[in-house]
Every structure is written in structure tokens, then in C-alpha cells.
Write a structure and sequence with these properties.
Family: Belongs to the peptidase A1 family.
Distance between the termini: 33 Å
Protein name: Peptidase A1 domain-containing protein
Shape: globular
Helix content: 10-25%
Pfam families: TAXi_C (PF14541), TAXi_N (PF14543)
GO molecular function, one term: aspartic-type endopeptidase activity
Structural class: alpha+beta
Mean pLDDT: 75
InterPro entries: Aspartic_peptidase_A1, PEPTIDASE_A1, Peptidase_aspartic_dom_sf, TAXi_C, TAXi_N
């Protein structure tokens, strides 16, 4: 078995999904399936990960958002997208693009899947914001190639 991580700085991977094999479920008797993940706002900041219910945490700077689950995607964390912004400007994407379902939060993947209209708007805004930087092409790939447009609903 090869359990070596992909990067020299990583020493492992912790699954936080709602799947029975995840760390969250394997430690359910101790932490009651609660965890808080604070994502840093930029590279100079640090985030944190805590386990257990946030008992009476009284801090005006910390806000907790419970993420409900749906029967169709029970192991994932579901969120509803209401808009996408680039450089503080909300993109002109029709509400109907987001109407047929939400999205899942998966901190373990490197891909983002968007409907074609949302992808086109994001790609256009990203290109506009990055226009003053010199772009060096990589093996024929386009800007925002990591964002995949999908043509079907999941």
C-alpha cells in the first residue's frame, strides 16, 4: 500500500464528508459529528479546524453556519449558490441558472463544475480582471481551464 501524500509538505489527508468511513463519523462518539472549518481569507492568514459542538462560544467575530443535507446527496455538504462575484462585482448571471439545485462543498477536490452560462460569465470577468497581467500559456490550456462547464444536471 502506498500511503504517501502528493506533496512534500503534506503528511496525510483527512476526510470530513458525511460518509461512514470519514473522520467525522469515525469520531462521532466523541465529537457528535460536529466540526468547524474556518477558511482563511488570504495566504497571509491562518484558518483552523475544530471538532465538537461549539458550546456557548461567545465571540462576535465567529459565525457558525450549519449546512443541512439532502437525501439525494447525503454524504455531501449542500449549499445553494445565489451569485458569483469577481473583484467585488456580482456577475450578471440569471437566477434561473442556480434554480435547479445547489452545489456541494468538497474541500478534497481541485475541480469546480458550473453550468455553461455561469462558467462563461466567470471566465469573462476573470479574463477582464487579469488582463493587465502577462499570461504565459501552459501546454495549450486556456485561462480557467480548471473550471469545467457542465451541460447536464446532477
Amino acid at each position: 500500500m502506498n500511503n504517501k501524500a502528493n506533496s512534500d509538505s503534506s503528511i496525510g489527508l483527512m476526510g470530513l464528508s458525511r460518509a461512514p468511513i470519514s473522520f467525522v463519523y469515525q469520531t462521532a462518539s466523541k465529537f457528535k459529528k460536529y466540526f468547524s472549518y474556518c477558511i482563511p481569507s488570504d495566504y497571509s492568514s491562518t484558518g483552523y479546524l475544530t471538532f465538537g459542538k461549539p458550546n456557548d462560544l461567545n465571540n462576535k467575530y465567529i459565525k457558525f453556519t450549519p449546512i443541512p443535507t439532502t437525501p439525494q446527496q447525503s454524504q455531501y455538504y449542500d449549499v445553494n449558490i445565489t451569485g458569483i462575484s469577481v473583484a467585488g462585482k456580482k456577475l450578471p448571471i440569471k437566477d434561473s441558472v442556480y434554480a435547479d439545485g445547489g452545489a456541494i462543498v468538497d474541500s478534497g477536490t481541485v475541480l469546480t463544475w458550473l453550468q455553461p452560462e455561469a462558467y462563461a460569465a466567470l471566465r469573462s470577468a476573470f479574463r477582464k480582471e487579469m488582463a493587465h497581467y502577462k499570461f504565459k500559456g501552459a501546454m495549450g490550456l486556456q485561462i480557467l481551464v480548471m473550471i469545467l462547464a457542465v451541460t447536464r444536471q446532477f
